[in-house]
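Quick bug: Pyridoxine 5'-phosphate synthase output formatted oddly.
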Amino acid sequence: MPAKLSVNLNAIAMLRNRRDLPWPSVVGIGKRALEAGAHGLTVHPRPDQRHIRFSDLGPLRTLIDETFPQAEFNMEGYPNAEFLGLVERHRPEQVTLVPDDPAQATSDHGWDFRANQTLLTDVIARLKDLGLRVSLFADGDGDREALEIARATGADRIELYTGPYGGCFGAPDQAAAIAKELGRTAEIARTLGLGVNAGHDLTVENLPLLVEHVPHLDEVSIGHGLTADALEYGMTETVRRFRRACGEVVA
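Here's what came back:
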C-alpha cells in the first residue's frame, strides 16, 4: 500500500500570522488538501502559538468530523501538561510525540529513548486510555536497542526524522546512503511490531527514493516543501503530485 499523505498546516498558519487577518485560512486550505485526496491533516501547536494557534484546533477537528470523516487529525508536540490538555480536548486520531524544546524553530532530532523511557511510558498510557494511536519521533540510525525501548513504551509507531535526508539535495550519493539507513531502521521497527511514519524536509523529488527503501511506510507528514510547491502549482495539484510521489496512482 502506498504511504498515506498527511498535510502539515504549520507553514500556512505562519503565513497567516504575519498579519492580524483571517487569511490564508488554515481550515480552508486544510479542506482543499482533503478534497484533493490527502489522508489527513497535521498540526504542531507550539506553546508560543507562532504558527498553529490553539483556536485552530476545534475548527480543524470539526472539519474532519463533519466533512471528511474518513480522514485523520494528527497532533504533534512535546508532551507537557498544556499539550496533553489540548490532545484530550480535541482527540486526534494520532498523536506524534516529539522531544522539542519550546524555543526550537522546528523539530530536529528524535527521542533519546533510553533517557526518556519512563516519561514516554507514562504519557503513552494516558493517551492509550483515550483510544489514540501514538507515534514517537525517532532518528533513523538503526539503533535496535533504542527501538526496542520505543516499543516497550507502548507506542504504536515511530516517525522517522528525515531532516538529514531532505538536507542532502544535490548530493545523490549521500541521499542514497541515508535512505538505506532509514530503510534499515524502518525494517527493525517493523520486526518489533511498530508501524513507520516519516517526516521532515520531504519533497516530490526525494520521496520516491525514500519509499523505495521503506516499502512499508505507513504515512508521511509534509508541510514546508508541500506549501512551497503550492505557491507554484496550487494546493490541489500539489497534493496530487505528492500522492503520486508516495506511489499512489492518481488519475
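Actually, after a second look the formatting is fine. The chain has a mean pLDDT of 96. Closing.
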